[in-house]
Specification:
Strands 1, 2, 3, 4, 5, 6, 7, 8, 9, 10, 11 and 12 form a 12-stranded antiparallel β-sheet that branches. The radius of gyration is 40 Å and the shape is elongated. 24% of the residues lie in helices and 49% in strands.
């Protein structure tokens, strides 16, 4: 009987030791797993940090490229030998606004050619009408930061002709369209009128 109790105690002691050993082994495995996971995470972060994540540069523009645009233009002032007319605020004697539409053929990031037609609507004496249509083509000298200089020729259906230097600035760029503003100084001759020079403001959208 005594031997049986002794054997039982030994068995329980061995079982206790096995349980503790098993418990210790599981704990060690967990610790090793955590350490291994941390090492893998650190190695992954290191590898990712060494990877070049610089965003890809935009695709290079292929020339020649053709884009269309439309806009509106407001005559601000007209000056000739006899008088200076404030076109923009002269509502009592009539007011005019133009709607330039055109096409730009871009041959490079430095040069292009523009074709533009501008119908002008004029109000006065209680009525409105299309007073003239202007055709004014010209070369485009393109600079950095969205600046463009366009010396245009000018041919009006009202009989006037001349040239129009234009300074154009792109103010918003997107994938689908660009917004631009422009200032121009139309110089006109002919049709039995005095030579004149004016100042215009233009705002428009280019469709890419």
């Amino acid at each position: 009987m005594k031997n049986q109790k002794t054997d039982t105690a030994v068995t329980l002691h061995i079982s206790s030791l096995n349980y503790k050993s098993c418990k210790l082994s599981i704990t060690q495995l967990i610790k090793k797993g955590v350490i291994l996971s941390l090492l893998i995470t650190l190695l992954s972060i290191g590898a990712f940090a060494q990877t070049d994540i610089t965003p890809a540069s935009p695709p290079k523009t292929i020339y020649p490229k053709t884009v269309g645009y439309f806009s509106f233009i407001l005559p601000i002032v007209t000056i000739n030998k006899s008088e200076t007319t404030n076109d923009f605020s002269n509502f009592n004697n009539g007011f005019s606004i133009g709607f330039p539409v055109g096409m730009n053929i871009l041959y490079s990031d430095k040069f292009g050619f523009s074709f533009e037609f501008t119908p002008t609507i004029e109000s006065g004496s209680g009525s409105t009408k299309t007073s003239k249509i202007l055709f004014d083509p010209g070369p485009m000298f393109r600079f950095t930061n969205g600046w463009t200089f366009i010396p245009r020729l000018a041919f009006e259906t009202a009989g006037r002709y001349g040239f129009t230097p234009v300074i154009n600035k792109t103010i918003v760029r997107t994938k689908a369209f660009n917004l631009f503003i422009a200032a121009s100084a139309p110089v006109r001759f002919g049709n039995s009128e005095l030579p004149s020079i004016g100042g215009n403001f233009q705002f428009g959208i280019t469709l890419n």
